[in-house]
Design a protein that fits this description.
Number of domains: 2
Structural class: alpha+beta
Order of helices and strands: HEEEEEEHHH
CATH topology of the largest domain: Ubiquitin Ligase Nedd4, Chain: W
Strand content: 25-35%
Low-confidence stretches: 74-83
Strand order of the largest sheet: 1-4-5
CATH class of the largest domain: Mainly Beta
Largest sheet: 3 strands, antiparallel
CATH superfamily of the largest domain: Nascent polypeptide-associated complex domain
Number of helices: 4
Radius of gyration: 21 Å
CATH architecture of the largest domain: Single Sheet
Length: about 140
């Protein structure tokens, strides 16, 4: 609690509203995946809360992740919160959304887009720039 601040939940909510802060619990979340270059952090049935402060929305995910190497379906360090119901992780490679973006922006084939994404470590903007400058 904030020293000298509100002492009950209702006062806290009123103060947050005055500061332009709102929170919202997101019901029914089945899974959250946080991807890094080498690992997937998979949260099964986490509690997710969205907070908006002056127009900026942030998300809080509460749960214990299963940490998996990228591109595999088996966990390396599992912290199960019950039986796993997650779908198998697709094979490693650029996401379809990134491939489509590069194809559309650079006007290239799917194979060229994938190759450019792999060369640019999965960065779509860099892949597009590489393909666009190659043509000149």
């Amino acid at each position: 609690m904030i020293p000298g601040g509100p002492h009950n939940q209702r006062q806290m909510q009123m103060m947050m509203r005055r500061l332009g802060m709102t929170t919202e619990e997101i019901p029914g979340v089945e899974e959250v995946i946080v991807r890094t270059k080498t690992k997937d952090h998979v949260f099964i049935a986490p509690e997710v809360t969205a907070m908006t402060v002056q127009g900026v929305r942030t998300y809080q995910v509460v749960g214990t992740p299963e940490i998996r190497p990228r591109g595999t379906g088996s966990p390396t360090t599992a912290h199960p919160a019950g039986p796993s119901t997650s779908a198998p992780v697709p094979p490693a490679g650029p996401p379809d959304e990134d491939i489509q973006l590069v194809m559309d922006q650079a006007q290239v084939s799917r194979t060229e887009a994938i190759e450019a994404l792999l060369q640019s470590d999965g960065a779509p903007a860099e892949a597009i720039m590489k393909l666009m400058t190659r043509r000149r």
